[in-house]
Design brief:
Length: about 230
């Protein structure tokens, strides 16, 4: 779990801070007593700049607890307002990596389906057709390599629905490794799932510069294999 002392900061300026979320981090408090990543980042900023009070930190998007990768926070109210608007208007592009089993067919595609959330189960269900309480979900994916037992997939969601990538890959018959909620046969030892927010592309909310922030995955043989595949693609 991340702490103020071991927080992996990917980028920081006067307006925003991007950190690499560990799969054990929770983005915002859930009432169970675990310190949220938002609190950890605020504590980090307070200590770094010797602030007399608690540092301002604004959450603009989230990742599920078992998911790792880049998370962007606002350090000012101006940046928070602008980033929130950008996410709402789908002006921010996120790229994810996933390890799936056994394979994915077709090897690439554009999936448009409709998701319905069951709040009691904290789970979403995918449907081909629209319907009551179903929300349109849109993503592009591409298989980029394979190992002995798994395939490596890059995903670019065009919408931000609840558990969108997890339920859609399962719907395609390719559940994410460790994601027993969506069809994986067994959990990972550390309660993570092999889904990583690899990259985020956006226009800086204040500087108006094009930004790309990349998060390295946690140490793991399968993520190491994915990294080697990615290097060979360049």
């Amino acid at each position: 779990m991340s702490t103020a002392s071991n927080l992996q900061v990917l980028y920081e300026d006067n307006h925003i801070i991007a950190v690499n979320k560990r799969s054990s981090d929770i983005v915002q408090g859930d009432g169970k007593g675990d310190k949220s990543l938002c609190e950890v980042v605020a504590e980090y900023l307070t200590k770094k700049y010797n602030k007399p009070g608690k540092a301002f930190i604004g959450t603009v998007h989230r990742l599920d607890r078992p998911v790792s990768g880049v998370i962007l926070y606002a350090k000012t109210s101006k940046a928070l307002s602008r980033l929130t608007t950008m996410f709402r208007h789908r002006e921010v592009q996120k790229t994810y990596w996933a390890v799936v089993k056994p394979d994915i067919d077709p090897a690439e595609g554009h999936v448009l389906n409709y998701l319905k959330k069951n709040s009691k189960q904290n789970k979403s269900y995918a449907y081909i057709n629209p319907g009551k309480e179903r929300k349109e979900a849109d993503l592009i994916y591409k298989k980029v390599g394979e190992g002995d037992h798994y395939s490596f997939v890059e995903i670019m969601p065009k919408s931000g629905r609840h558990h969108q990538i997890r339920v859609t890959l399962s719907w395609l018959g390719s559940p994410i490794k460790g994601d027993v909620k969506y069809g994986a046969r067994r959990t990972n030892d550390n309660a993570s799932i092999h889904l990583h927010a690899r990259r985020i592309d956006f226009v800086h909310p204040v500087k108006k510069e094009t930004m790309t922030i990349i998060a390295p995955p946690q140490e793991d043989p399968l993520w190491d294999k994915f990294l080697s595949i990615d290097l060979n693609r360049r």
